Amino acid sequence: MEISDLLAPEAVIQSLKTHGKKQLLHDLAARAAQLTGLPERRILETLIERERLGSTGMGQGIAIPHGRLSGLPRILGLFARLESPIAFDAIDDQPVDLVFLLLTPEDAGADHLKALALVSRTLRSQLTCEKLRAARRAEVLYALLTEPTNGHQQAA
C-alpha cells in the first residue's frame, strides 16, 4: 500500500481557510462527500465520533482525522494544508496546519490500520512536513506526499 493508493490529486487542498477544529471537520466532510457521493452529515458524524475517543492531532502540527464508513467502496484520503494553524487538542497542545483525512470502508479490517500507519509514517518525516508547508500548489503537495523517498515504499 502506498499513499497514491489512498490519495487522488483532486483530494489535495493547498490552502484551506478554517477557524477551528469543528469547522475544519465540517469542511473536510463536505469535500469528502463530493469525492465519495456519501452524505456529508454521515461523514461528519463519523469524524466527530472518533474525535470523542481522543484527539487525532498527533503533534508537530499534524492531525489525521479518520473513521470507518459503511457504503464506502475503497479507502479515501484527503490532504489539506491549512492557511493558518488551528487549535486541535493535539497531544503536544500545538496548533495543527497539516491534515490528512482518512476514511475506510467499515469492513476494511487490517487495511484501516495499515493505511493509518502509512500516513503517520509519511507525516512523521520532519523534512516532508517542511516541504509540505513550503509548497504553494496542490500538484506539488500531491507529488511530495506520493514520492517514494518518503520512506513509505518499504517491502511488505
What does this 3D model show about the protein?
This protein has 6 helices and 6 strands, in the order αβααβββββααα. It has helices spanning about 5, 20-35, 40-55, 110-125, 125-135, 140-145; strands at about 5-15, 55-60, 60-65, 65-70, 75-85, 95-105. Strands 1, 2, 3, 4, 5 and 6 form a 6-stranded mixed sheet that branches. Strand 2 and strand 3 (about 60-65) form a beta hairpin. The N and C termini lie close together (about 10 Å).
Spell out the blueprint of helices and strands.
Elements: H1 3-6, E1 7-16, H2 21-36, H3 40-53, E2 57-59, E3 62-63, E4 66-69, E5 76-86, E6 96-105, H4 110-124, H5 126-134, H6 138-146
Parallel strand pairs: 1-5, 3-6, 4-6
Antiparallel strand pairs: 2-3, 5-6
What labels describe this entry?
156 residues; globular; Mannitol-specific EII, Chain A; alpha/beta
Query: Mind telling me the CATH superfamily name?
Result: Mannitol-specific EII, Chain A
Q: Based on DSSP secondary structure assignment, what is the total number of beta strands? A: 6
Helical percentage: 40-55%
Distance linking N and C termini? 8 Å
Summarize the structure.
Helix content is 43%, strand content 26%. The chain is an alpha/beta fold and 156 residues long.
